[in-house]
Every structure is written in structure tokens, then in C-alpha cells.
Amino acid sequence: MAVPENAYAQDYGSGWACHFGYRNEADGCVAIVIPVNGYLVDSVMGWRCDRGYEATGNECIRIPVPENAFLSESAARDPWECDRGYRASGDQCAAIEIPQNGYPTNSSYGLGWDCERGYRQVGLECNAIKVPNNGYLVHTSYLGWRCARGYRASADACVRIEVPHNAHINSSGNDWTCNRPYLKRDDNCVSRQR
Predict the structure, then answer these.
(1) Torsion of CA 70, 74, 77, 80, to 10 degrees
(2) Sign, CA torsion 150/155/157/162
(3) pLDDT tens digit string along 6-64?
(4) What confidence category does residue 75 fall into, taking pLDDT thresholds of 50, 70 and 90?
(5) How far is residue 9's CA from residue 140's CA, in Å, rounded to a whole number?
(6) Contact (Cβ atoms closer than 8 angstroms) between residue 129 and residue 119
(7) Measured torsion, CA atoms of residues 48, 51, 57, 63, in degrees rounded to the nearest 10
(8) Do residues 158 and 151 lie in contact, with contact meaning Cβ atoms separated by under 8 Å?
(9) What's the rounded Cα separation, in Å, for the pair 89 and 96?
């Protein structure tokens, strides 16, 4: 079997395959036409567009990136993403309104902002968290604060835990447990009945 120009022999299929940069067409190998801003690859098309360009027919067209945006790193996502503090709105990036004591996040969902430490979101504002005496700020609580060990939350305050005789503050720090072998009855620790 004759091997066409710009091809090499192989032991399977048609007995030949085209060199890199050529494609099989009409029982021969023709050069792949690479568009401006494109490069050769091993694929069905034989070429791919440079970063910042996308294939439209047989051309590589520049991706229009709006103000306050940048090219995406992943071809699987949108070709561009908005800068932090901006959100896509059609083919533009609109500024996110961030309240006082708030900061922009990189999240593409939700409000696009979060409150600084010591503040909690209430509607579209960041309100100061009022930490009671014997309390401290936390990020994981709805209240935004937790009581120190030996105290428990009661309304907007941290009240001292009254520990009865034969008991100790438990591992959570906000309640008490009877010492062994005593049992909890109401607010006391009583001897175990034999």
C-alpha cells in the first residue's frame, strides 16, 4: 500500500497515518490551517485557541473581558470572572454594595460579602455583636459569642453555673455533672441507692 506524502506507515487501520500538523482528507494528508492566535494540538480540529481567545468557526476571536474582570483559569467555567467586590450582571461586572464593617468575599453566590469579626449580618447590615461579661467572640454560633467555662448563656448574659456538692463542671463547660458514684436528682447529686 502506498503511503501518501506527509504520512507514515503503521500496521493497523489504513496502513498509514498523517504526521503531526496534517489531517487525513480525501485519502491524503493536508496541512491543518491554524488560525491567527491558535496553535497545533492532537485533537479532532487539530488546533486550539490561545488563552484569551475562543474558537468561532475556523477563527480564534478575542474574548471580550469587561472592566473589573479577568480571564478564567478554567475553560470549563465562564471565559471571565469578576474581580473581588464585583458580580456578573449580563456581560458586565457590577460593584457589590458592601455595608460598613463588611468585606467582599470571592463567593459567586449569596450576598458577595461577609461581616468583619465582631459583627453579625442583620438584613443588609453588619451590626456589632454585644459580648456579655464572661463571654467571648466565636464565629460558629448564631449569637456570635459563647460563655466562658463555668458560665451558661441566659438571654443576653453569661450567668455563673451553680455547682452542687459532689459535682463538677462538665467537659462542655456550660453545665455540671455529678461525681461518681452520685446521681443527678433535680439540682442536686444524691448517693446511689443500693
Answers:
(1) 10
(2) negative
(3) 999 988 878 899 999 999 888 899 999 999 999 999 877 789 999 999 999 999 999 99
(4) low
(5) 67
(6) yes
(7) 170
(8) yes
(9) 11
Residue 134, C-alpha cell as written in the block: 464572661
Is the bond preceding 181 in cis, omega lying within 30 degrees of 0? yes
Residue identified by cell 501518501 is 4
Q: Identity (one letter) of the amino acid at 88?
A: A
118 dihedral zone (left: phi>0; alpha: psi -120 to 50; beta): left
Cell numbers 459583627 correspond to 119
pLDDT value of position 146:
93
Cell 496534517 identifies what position? 22
Amino acid at 161: I
Q: Is residue 99 within 8 Å of residue 121, measured between CB atoms?
A: no
CB 5 within 8 Å of CB 29? yes
Q: What is the pLDDT of residues 83-140, one digit of tens each?
A: 999 999 899 999 999 999 999 998 878 899 999 999 999 999 999 999 999 999 998 7
CB 174 within 8 A of CB 167: no
- C-alpha angle 76-82-87 in degrees, rounded to nearest 5: 110
